[in-house]
Amino acid sequence: MFSKILIPTDGSVIANAAARKGVEFAKQVGAEVIALFVAPNYQYPVYVEIVPPSYPNEEEYKASIKRTGETFIKAIADMAAANGVKFSSHSMFRIPPHSASCRRLRSMAAT
């Protein structure tokens, strides 16, 4: 019936609870779990005259968000492993719905 279950996450308590249920469901139906983390794009500072020294530049932001996403994805990977469920994942920055990355996700879910 279902061969793949897409589980998006933002790392919240609610997302983790939903992930647990998704992994349990995947185990019941013999489906693969695909975890998805979509990060917000970098927001340039809106300050006109000065940028606070503590404000991260775009590269620092992306590195930090990548580490955060990996943590969120690992939580789902661990759930899948504990339940013997096949697992894959995808992380990305926010994308428009017509983009190539979005089309790739659709094709992953369809196979």
Describe the structure in your own words.
The chain is α/β, with parallel strands linked by helices. The chain has helices spanning 13-29, 58-82, 100-110, and strands spanning 4-8, 32-39, 87-93. The chain has a three-stranded parallel beta sheet, sandwiched between helices. The longest helix is centred in the middle third of the chain and has 25 residues, at 58-82. The chain is elongated and about 55 Å long. The two termini are 13 Å apart.
In summary, what is this structure?
With 111 residues, this protein is of the alpha/beta class.
Please give the structural blueprint.
Blueprint (H helix, E strand, L loop, with lengths): L3 E5 L4 H17 L2 E8 L18 H25 L4 E7 L6 H11 L1
Parallel strand pairs: 1-2, 2-3
Helix pairs in contact: 1-2
**Spatial order of the strands in the main sheet?**
1-2-3
Please report which band the strand proportion falls in: under 5%, 5-15%, 15-25%, 25-35%, 35-45% or over 45%.
15-25%
Distance between the termini: 13 Å
The tally of helices reads 3
Largest sheet: 3 strands, parallel
| Radius of gyration using CA atoms only | 17 Å
Shape: elongated
What attributes does this structure have?
alpha/beta; 111 residues; elongated; single chain
